[in-house]
Design a protein that fits this description.
6-stranded mixed beta sheet, 4-stranded mixed beta sheet, 2-enoyl-CoA Hydratase, Chain A, domain 1, alpha/beta
Length: about 270
Amino acid sequence: MSGGGFRVDFVERPEGGRVARLVIDNPAKLNSLNSALMEELVATMAQVAAAPELRLAILTGAGGRAFVGGADIGEIAALDHKGARRFITLVHRCCAACRELPVPVIARIEGYALGAGLELAAACDLRVASQDAVFGMPEVAIGIPSVVEAALLPRLIGVGRANRLLLTGEPIDAPTALAWGLVDSVAPASDLDAAVERLAQPILAAGPHAIRLQKALIREWQEMPAAAAIARGIDAFVSAYDSDEPARMAGAAVERLRRRRAGGGRP
């Protein structure tokens, strides 16, 4: 599955199931998002979401210089009212495609993650960055506010830190992003794939049905008051028993514990 600006490679994992590597491929422009690329991304992600053996997705940018350097500034400068609504709605649809993918999405961030690129990263479930990564929301510097999935930032990093990014437009480096909780891990560029793999392995070792239920539940929690979120969790727990995963995986854990105890090992 491929395209001029967005490509997907499926990798069959020895643990079982598939991992999709999603690549935004516009390196000459720091992988900036234009309308054609975004339409391709949205359409392709719908096909990825339908793959029944899918276990995990990894989203990255081509070229090593940027995850996504922002929305295409030339296209932004030429927008009118009608075009502005269409363009920013496309940005949202790209972010929503990541949030709505039924399996976890890890953002593999190398270089710049600015504006729409940071919104796209925020829409992923986990984020791993290279030590030279740069994060920012510079839209106010070109006369527009940061919108759509920028709304995820206050709950991700706190209101004060989100305000600093959104109101000053000034970037932060990878160590600061890690300290703020904007990313989950930072590694040298040479170790970036290994750092992604360290997050991927426990996800792939977990129950596929349980992981899909957990991602859906996390998204629902974000829209619910606490009491409703707790009640919805009860439904999700019961839904886990639609498959054999609880009996099979919990049963295996009980057996491992029994063997350790029988052998004098600690539980």
